[in-house]
Amino acid sequence: QRVEVVGSSVVSTGTLLAASGARLGESTLLLDSSAMTRNLLAEPWVERASVEVRWPSTLVLSVTPLPPALAYQRGPWSQPLAASGAVLAGPGRIDLGGLPRLVDRRSVEAASPGQVVLPSRLSAALVQLARVFPASYGVSVRRFEITKAGALEIVSSAGWTADLGLALTPSQISSLAPKLEALRALAGQVNLKGPGIKDIYLEDPSQVVVSP
């Protein structure tokens, strides 16, 4: 008859209840709190969760969301994104200045809280890449971009853009590693911090093209 939410839920109480596998009006005697906890932990935005049944008719759902890892932008909207690829809040006044920025040009509409907008492998890779980019390539990441076609681009602090090609399917994400290795090799031959480079095409890592 009663649902209490403890912590900070990204989604509404009704959506959270449905995700747990319970429904209003169900007898508390029939609830499996362990199974419901596993259901909540399977949600892509949840870091920690627990379920408690308080006799006679109260269900307590405790949830802690994953921390924001990327500043996700669609059109004019910026939202926090977890490394799992799940949106952690609706558009609003949230300080995302310290997070790597990802511009998604596939849509101009704000994403729904809890919605998965990127494969987890890709979003986690972008978080790691932003962290190691300065040491590996001598410049930092100004922003990542996903084009309308689904290609990944890296805009560097030096002003050049690296085009890594399509990066949404598992095989496309796996192909990013040799492309980044090709960029690392290029950094050993060309001063990536200096002027004169506009675009670096890495779609074929065996034939890297640099455009002045």
Task: Itemize the secondary structure elements and their pairings.
Layout: E1 2-7, H1 13-20, H2 33-41, E2 46-54, E3 58-65, E4 70-74, E5 77-81, E6 101-104, H3 120-137, E7 141-146, E8 151-156, E9 161-166, H4 170-174, H5 176-187, E10 199-201, E11 209-211
Parallel strand pairs: 1-3, 4-6, 6-7, 9-10
Antiparallel strand pairs: 2-3, 4-5, 7-8, 8-9, 10-11
What is the general shape?
elongated
Could you list the spans in which at least 5 consecutive residues all have pLDDT below 50? none
Biggest β-sheet, characterized? 8 strands, mixed
What is the overall number of helices? 5
How large, in whole angstroms, is the Cα Rg? 21 Å
How do the SSEs run, as a string of H and E? Answer: EHHEEEEEHEEEHHEE
Taken as a percent bin, the fraction of beta residues is 25-35%
Q: Look at the helices and sheets and give the structural class.
A: alpha/beta
Mean pLDDT: 94
Q: How far is it from the N-terminal to the C-terminal residue, by CA?
A: 66 Å
Q: Percent range for helical residues? A: 10-25%
State the strand order across the main sheet.
Answer: 5-4-6-7-8-9-10-11
